[in-house]
């Protein structure tokens, strides 16, 4: 075994292969930083090139890309507050809050180091895949997976925040978004409004970009030519290293959570990241800083997401069942090179197996190092007026969204959900529970249905289920006992579970949002009656608490109503402009509206000078067109004027 | 972009009729776009990539093939895109499976593509093998009704690629509980290995690489294959796993007479699109015959190419491509079932599986 490991290391140190690995790594880093584009986009852009290389180099190139995406996405999340990838949304919440307090280097340092540990943990798990990881994957049957989803839900409860009604309503809204599309249990398509686009449900990328990214960009554009917060300085890393060392056990636990997330087929890094983040909240005594910049939140989520993408390779290599979307493409590449992963993979191709381990381990370390090296330069970008950065950012998000199906639906959905995210941000609804609800509703429904079909209720006594269930039950019992004890004495201050938004919520927007959401729930309830009974369970779980909560918020909002729309009027115009842009792209194709949007953003919003904005605008437009071509999506062609 | 395309199409159509003889080859200097309506790691995409170099080598003029993935809507979005954008000169191909064909045959909502009007350029068999867990006590196809445990089958959705498997259980009158709602056939196989399910179908390439090792270790018992076309009936043995009987043969064994009736007609129609012509390259309805003949010749050359034979031996146990008028007739027949069969399928799906149309 050791011998194979060394042979593989030697094979990897061939100059061509190393070059391939690091080329892949750089592509992965760039795509990790671009919001909405991540591992899948990086791997698909590299895919055509790997066939010119020998199998080892080609696979190393893909692995290089896969292993750093969740390291470099930290940069975007922290500096801009728009998640670099869906799985770094918690980092965007905590890291950006820290950056605004001038502590960006702390947040980034911890993020990079935690990512590296996550990657190395994943590599170690791959190393022991046959004796350890394989049997664990086989032990995780549907009931165990259902229990994992429930643990995730339990942890998610800690993200609800101080305003219980808004937090719960947001979670229900997320679950409702998650049930759009095909039902798991019976052949129903839910809430598709006859649109083929919705037959597959919402794409995670678009939901994450819409809820978090678009709202952030709108603020940036509305801030216009000014710099809305103090300069982000990234110079001394010392504090970050100390923070990381303090949180080392948390990072390791998060990495293990991430590894389990990777074992589960088709559950991506997002789910395990949120679970790890929830775990961080749970295991931190002073919860008051969560949502306002808590370094432990970053440590946990970055440790988890990197571990997940790498341990996604375990089911891929041992059972030929891809653990996640990027792993699916990797599997395809393995097939093309004539490798057929499966139980025999390790005995037939031990060198390849170790080559994979070394590749991900090496890129995890080098990638984190490179992130440290380039960040000071990137941080200087934040001194540029925000609207100037926002211009390309909006368009990159459009491209990222457009990767899901390459139809106009992607772009409409991005801005519709962006509008929702913006309303939530300003109405004081926490967005984290909504995204968690969205991420978990699919697996929960699927595993509940499959478990119930296969086992009836006997699954509750399975040992694995009991072990995982104890993760929920034991802490609950402990806190019950504590609470009872504390009641005997004088009660201390209750732990503050607050995740407030930084600005006080707008009363007007809160009312509008409550009204919209109440209508959505009411409609959803009505449509539920047309489903097969088995397809009603999950929507009901969202609607039954969601509708009363929304109505309560509506009444409360009406009572507290004050006309304070003018405060956010500036941002509202930007949102409206983005909607107009989407309509225009639909009508007359990509090019003309994009040019107009760029001109509007640069001249009106950023107040750049004509000549500089002309040069910059042309460059941005050229890059956007190039990206459309590189990613092999035809740019949208107008419906009224057939021009793209 | 669109204008450029239109003029290109016009030029190509003119060019191919006027100057066919003058060119080095029909496709010299051209790029053929192969649209796969599934994700990039999927079996269909991989198969398209597998065939890419051989088509490039053997088509006249050695065109470039560009395999493009357009997933969404369970393949409906990609096929709808093809309906709207395909060129009529053979440079756009829709390469897909029964997941696209079944919604068309059943007339599901959202289907805009007219699959039965398309020309069939080439087709690759994609057979499937049924197998059970030894825990059931079943040792061969003939014993399938004597399972000691209730049979549980896992699938994705009744109206998609699971349909022929489910119909085969109807034909053979085997009592199987179908648990639908899995993410893919990979997770289904994992659930089989975990002992949650005890009867499964896997497509041949997966069967050969993943299930055969389990058979050797005694963890799985192979039963039958979907069968192969023989004299217009799906009764032949599948060349990919010739040691196993076809569903047709199993029926004969169990009932002492050849299968007939609406269940069989429905199974044969759906199964031939799924298995015998599992992966099919479709072209625009107005594609000139000359282009289709060129593909038929290229397919014959690919089948004779020793390199292809060696590679396909590894992946599909030596399956060969099909093309030409017979293939096209068979595919089109399977795509246009009788009203009776359609009604039977729609009734079965809505009464037994709750599919709404």
From TrEMBL, chain A:
Sorted UniProt keywords: Membrane, Transmembrane, Transmembrane helix
Residue intervals of the DUF112 domain: 18-435
Database matches in InterPro entries: DUF112_TM, DUF1468
Start and end residues of each DUF1468 domain: 509-630
Pfam families assigned: TctA (PF01970), TctB (PF07331)
Segments crossing the lipid bilayer: 20-53, 107-130, 136-156, 168-186, 206-229, 250-277, 317-340, 352-378, 384-402, 411-428, 464-484, 504-525, 537-555, 575-603, 610-628
The protein's name: TctA family transporter
Organism: Roseibium marinum
From TrEMBL, chain B:
Keyword Transcription: no
Keyword line: Receptor, Signal
InterPro entries given in the database record: BUG, Bug_dom1
Endpoints of the signal sequence: 1-22
Domain of life: Bacteria
Family: Belongs to the UPF0065 (bug) family.
Protein name listed in UniProt: Tripartite-type tricarboxylate transporter receptor subunit TctC
